[in-house]
Amino acid sequence: MSKQQYRIHNWSNYNTSLINRGRITLWFDEESIESWFVTKPAGKRGRPCLYSDAAIICLLLIKSVFRLDFRKLQGFTESLVVLMSLDITIPSYTQICRRQASLGVNLSHIQRDEPIHVVIDSTGLKVFGEGEWKTRQHGISKRRTWRKLHLGLDESTGEVVAMELSTNNVADGEVLPDLLDQIEEDIECVSADGAYDQSRCYKAIDERYAQANIPPRKDAVLHQHGNCKKAPLTRDENIRGIRKLGRKAWKKSIGYHRRSLSETAMFRIKQLFGANLSARLFDNQVTEAIIRCRAMNEMTQLGMPKSVPI
User: Fold this and answer.
1) What's the whole-number average pLDDT of the chain?
2) How far is CA 273 from the centre of its chain?
């Protein structure tokens, strides 16, 4: 069978959205400038902060979108203030770096009233170590390490609605309950690959009264007999569906292949912001990852291509 071909129908609007992503006024906007300084002290001991969290988030968004180092970020934004004749000052690069660890950043996605379909997966972001060629030729050294970025996306909009950053020794299934806890909307179903075929994942999804679209392992067996008086388990129902239809037809019937949108989002993040984390402290790396997801959400809200099958 030939591969399905698609055609984009909103090229004009999508081109405009791509152009707007590079406009500095999108990231350095009037709302951030108005709330640049702290107007009310936090009431804690010590000298109060001069710059608000909104100001630091604004600077970090510019840093991620334009791939700037901290020193370049300070020089770039100081020149913007001069060109725009603004009555504000820019914090030093050391202040921005220190504040990064304690920021509370939200993902800024559009809240929906209807239940959403969540697709979940994870990818790696390198911290330091050799590249792929050296690893393939000489093996992995002890200094090579990375972090795992776990994403939960709204299937219909492509926005990131939940994210977690963990060390590379954390299994995917351990993070899924935390991802679902971040989602305030009602969840219709959760699609994930076989790495999430764990009892704790099914339990967390059942607690949200959602359907679990997770393919069981090929050697999976039923946990409850069909005549059992207890409520049927979701995993058992998936196994029965595979036995009846076949694995390929079962995936198509439940729309499992929409899960590939999570892999598309990971590709977008690495293309837009790079596959490496520049921060060295873990708390700073978490903030850096959230900032990237928030920036990608704002880019998504500007406009995405609408493709239809030919």
Assistant:
1) 88
2) 12
